[in-house]
Amino acid sequence: MTQRFDEIIRAVRRELSRTSSLMSMLSELMIVSEMWEENGKINIIAWIPDIEKGVLKYRKKHIIYDPASKRIQCIKDLSRSSEETTHARPLPRYETLGT
């Protein structure tokens, strides 16, 4: 599982880095708190650095990665108010990955 975890995280970082050279650098600082597979997609809850008004802040994000297409399908910001991040259904509880 560790090898697959590393491969997936590298692929997600590579996809994030395509948005800008700054994001390329910041994606290396991503902290993964949860990861699970659902319907062939990899779901990741991670803290990703973001620059807001000149200040570096970590934002909690839900990333859905499709390993078949090697693309990120969706990134939801979980750091903002619940009005902005409503889900069709509540996210179930998942185990946190151990080291």
Description:
The chain is α+β, with helices and mostly antiparallel strands. The protein has one domain. Helix content is 22%, strand content 39%. The chain has a 4-stranded antiparallel sheet. The longest helix is centred in the first third of the chain and has 16 residues. The C terminus is likely disordered.
Unreliably modeled segments: 81-92, 94-99
Give the class from helix and strand content and strand pairing: alpha+beta
Largest sheet: 4 strands, antiparallel
Alpha carbon gap, first and last residue: 10 Å
Shape annotation: globular
Query: How many β strands by DSSP?
Result: 4
Q: How many discrete structural domains?
A: 1
Strand line-up in the sheet with most strands:
1-2-3-4
Q: What is the subunit arrangement here?
A: single chain
Structural Rg:
14 Å
